[in-house]
Amino acid sequence: LLSRIKPCKSQSKWINSGSADGSLNRHLGSQSEAIKTLCAIVATYEAAGMMATMEAASAVSNLGVLYLSANDCEKSLEACRRAAELKEKIFGTTTHPEVAADLMNSALALSGLGSFQEAAATFETSLKIFLETLGEDHPTTALVYHNTGKCLVHADAPRRAVGYLKKAAEIRGRILPGVHQDTALTLRMLGLALIMFGEVAEAAEHINKAIEIYECFGMDEESAAVLHTLGSGWGSNDDYQSALDCFLKELSIRRRIATEDTLDTAATLFSVATALTKMNDFAKAAEYHTEALTIRQRHHGDTPHPDVINSLNETGAAHLRSGNPTTALEYLTKGIAMHRSIDPTHEDIVTSLYNMGIAYTELGNLQEALTHHKEALLMREAAFGPHHRVSIESRQRIGEIYSSLGDAEKAEEYLKA
């Protein structure tokens, strides 16, 4: 068994290449066979009392990498931590690059387990070692800066993440040849971190650079995803025209690269419609919502699905706002029926009831309008209480309808409540 795999001379090479599992698999067969073989190798070293050797420590390191590639993050974390401990004893120091590589793999496993704060702290520990042993201008150092920032983004600490990501982008821009996909990846993550605390204009600079790099490699899917992130950022910053520009460009890319419209295309169409709604272009928004709905219905069929329900409701609302209450009711009626079949108390049902009440009022069917507004009021009061803004809004609608019907007593009851 021991003769079937050579010890890893530099654990960092597995990380840099991103193909540790592939290299090991070529030595040992399939991934599952490789894991079994390495487990047997480690067991053999343990039985022989040879765990204090570099060969044994390398076998444990490689096992951790294989577990990581197999998405078994718990076993990977256990193996990588053990490898780091073994190498600390072998080298007599905690600041050897081999130790740092195992710490980095441990951080990757922690990230896979969703422990982003602990992963970031572990990356930071490995980063100090790599800076001391490999220097700043090294691909592995840049990678750890990137991964630390990425974990901090996922840990909802974007301000801390920005420093690491800017450093990663700076190093990668300096040491990688020309335009490079790794640089784009860091610029994209940096843009996301900046968007998270409202620095959308600066984020746009970095994201646009990432898009330029992706376009050089024909990576259209990545460009579309980045544009969606930026569009969402502009939207959260209330710059709906910039958001719309991003979403329309994303839509153009998605339709260029796909032979037919996908669910991603539907999501983009929905985002375009949302931006148009914010800009009060309700007729155009209805068109895009209808396109999104058609795609979602084609993919999900008659099965109630949250995305289909959302599209039905928003399409109906857009038609209502653009002055088409009859068409609005068609979509709203379907949406509310589907929603009640899976979640009869969902708050979006209240919104649909309220919109249907408005539609019936505009059509002059005041009794139906009363029925829907009263049902909406009951649900709003149950959820928010009688003094909440939305409850008051519903009572005002009901009072106005009673006033139109000539029932002054009922109108006063609701308007003064």
The share of residues in extended strands comes to under 5%
* Helical segment count: 21
How would you sum up the major sheet?
Answer: none
Question: In total, how many beta strands?
Answer: 0
Inertia-based shape: elongated
Arithmetic mean of pLDDT: 90
Radius of gyration: 29 Å
Low-confidence stretches: 1-20
SS-based class: mainly alpha
What level of helicity do the residues show? over 70%
H/E element sequence: HHHHHHHHHHHHHHHHHHHHH
Amino- and carboxy-terminal Cα gap: 83 Å
Describe the structure.
With 417 residues, the protein is mainly alpha-helical. It has helices spanning 11-17, 20-28, 31-47, 54-69, 73-91, 97-112, 116-133, 139-154, 158-175, 181-196, 200-216, 220-236, 240-257, 263-278, 282-300, 306-321, 325-342, 347-362, 366-384, 389-404, 408-415. Helix 2 (20-28) crosses helix 3 and helix 12 (220-236) packs antiparallel against helix 13. The N and C termini lie far apart (83 Å).
